[in-house]
Amino acid sequence: MKLFPVHSILWSSLLLVLLASQSGTDASNPDVCQDTRSYGSLERNSSKPVDHHTEIVKKIEDVVCRLYPTNKLNCSWPSILQEDIQLSVFISICDDKKAVFNFSSVDKGGPVSLTLLEQEISDVLILQLNVTQHDRWTAVIHTVKMSELEVLPPPTNISASVRDGSLTVKWSLPHSRETNDSSCFQYELDMGDQENPRQLDGEESYTEQNVDPNLTYKVRIRARKEEDCQEQPEWSDWSHTVIVEPSVHKLNIPVIISISLGIPMILLAVVLLVRYQRVSEVLFPPIPRPPPKYIYFLEKNETSNLFHTAPPTEPMEEITEVEDTEENHEKTLSN
Ligand SMILES: *[C@@H]1O[C@H](CO)[C@@H](O)[C@H](O)[C@H]1NC(C)=O
Ligand SMILES: *[C@@H]1O[C@H](CO)[C@@H](O)[C@H](O)[C@H]1NC(C)=O
Ligand SMILES: *[C@@H]1O[C@H](CO)[C@@H](O)[C@H](O)[C@H]1NC(C)=O
Ligand SMILES: *[C@@H]1O[C@H](CO)[C@@H](O)[C@H](O)[C@H]1NC(C)=O
Ligand SMILES: *[C@@H]1O[C@H](CO)[C@@H](O)[C@H](O)[C@H]1NC(C)=O
Ligand SMILES: *[C@@H]1O[C@H](CO)[C@@H](O)[C@H](O)[C@H]1NC(C)=O
Ligand SMILES: *[C@@H]1O[C@H](CO)[C@@H](O)[C@H](O)[C@H]1NC(C)=O
C-alpha cells in the first residue's frame, strides 16, 4: 500500500524473474519478508510426496483472506478438523522487505481472525499454513497483495426519491483504501420489490422508470470492486435502508402538522373557556353584592345614567334628596 504503483509493478516483474533462483523458506524464518515471491503465488513444500494427504493440502490451498472495513483480517479455508492433524499458521505483513506484523498459532485447523492496527495494514501478506499428519508435513505459502483482500464498506450518502413516475437513487463512492476511481466499483441495488436486485457498474446513481408512486420503496445498496480492480471481490455489507413513502403520504405531512398543532390549540381554547367561566363567576356573581363602601358610589352612578338617558323620576329624587348640591350640579350638567 505504501509502495507507489510503478514501484510495485517493477518489483513484481523483478520477482517473477528472480523466482527461479529464490531460496526456500521455512515456518520459523524470521526474514519471511526478505524472500522474494510474486504476488498471488502459492508455494508448496513437503517432507514427503503429498499424495498421502492430498485432500487436506487441497483444502488449505483454498485459503481466502479478507480485510474488512473494521481492520479485521479473516483467513479461512475448508474445515480440516481431524484428530491426527495439526495445523500451524504463520502470518506476516510486509512493508517492502520489513515485517510490520507477525502472527503464529498452532491448532487443529480453524479459521484465523485478527484485528490489525492501521500501521499494520501494509503492502503484502504472507500466509503460511503447515499441516502435519503423523510423520509427514506439507507447508503452503501464499503471497498476496493486501489490496486484493479489501472488502469495501457499503456506499454512503444514499438518497432516493420518486418524481414524475421515476425512482431515482443516488449515493457516494464507498470509501476504499486503494482507489477512488469510480470505474472500479460495482453496485447492487435492492429496491425491496419482488424483482431481482439491479447491478450497476461505475455509476453513483440509478433511475427506475415507470414506478408506481403509490408504493413504498425500501432501497439498500452494497458495493464491491470490479474484477479488473480486484480478483474475486466480495460484496460489502448492505447499506442502511432508505425508505421512499408514496407521495400521498407526503401530502399528508402538512395535515399531520396542522393536526398536531391544532389539537393543543383546541385544548388550550377549552381550558381557557372553562377558566374564563370561573373567572366571570367571581367577577360577576349572579347576585352582585358590592361592598358597603361602594354602594353609594354605584347608586350615584345609576342616577347619573338615568339623568342622561331619561328624565328624573320620583324615586330618584327621593333617594338623592339628601345630597342637594350634587343633585343640582348634575341637573346643570344635564342642561
Ligand atoms: C522446505 O522446507 C524445508 C524445511 O523447513 C527447508 O529446508 C527447505 O528449504 C524448504 N524448501 C523450499 C523449496 O521452500
Ligand atoms: C512444518 O511443521 C513441521 C512440524 O510441525 C516442521 O518439522 C516443518 O519444518 C514445518 N515446515 C515448514 C516449511 O515450516
Ligand atoms: C516480525 O518478525 C520478524 C522476524 O522475527 C522481525 O524481524 C520483525 O521485527 C517482526 N515484526 C514485528 C512488527 O513484530
Ligand atoms: C471473521 O471471523 C470471525 C471468526 O471466525 C467471525 O466471527 C467474523 O464474523 C468474521 N468477520 C467477518 C466480517 O466475516
Ligand atoms: C452527498 O451527496 C451530496 C449530493 O448528492 C453531495 O453534494 C455530497 O458531497 C455528498 N457527500 C459525501 C460525503 O459524499
Ligand atoms: C480518496 O479521496 C479521499 C478524499 O478525496 C482522499 O483522502 C484519499 O486519500 C483518496 N484515496 C485514494 C486511495 O486515492
Ligand atoms: C394511486 O392512487 C390513486 C388514488 O389513491 C389513484 O387514483 C391512482 O390511479 C393510483 N396510481 C397508480 C399509478 O396506481
From TrEMBL:
Molecular function per GO: cytokine receptor activity
InterPro entries: FN3_dom, FN3_sf, Ig-like_fold
Region span, Disordered: 311-335
Annotated ranges, domain Fibronectin type-III: 154-247
Subcellular location: Membrane
One Pfam family in the UniProt entry: fn3
Transmembrane segment boundaries: 253-274
PROSITE patterns: FN3 (PS50853)
Keyword set includes Membrane: yes
Record keywords: Glycoprotein, Membrane, Receptor, Signal, Transmembrane, Transmembrane helix
Gene Ontology cellular-component terms listed: external side of plasma membrane
Signal peptide location: 1-27
Gene3D superfamilies hit by this protein: Immunoglobulins (2.60.40.10)
Entry-linked PANTHER family: CYTOKINE RECEPTOR, INTERLEUKIN 5 RECEPTOR SUBUNIT ALPHA
The name this protein goes by in its record: Fibronectin type-III domain-containing protein
The species this protein was found in: Larimichthys crocea (Large yellow croaker)
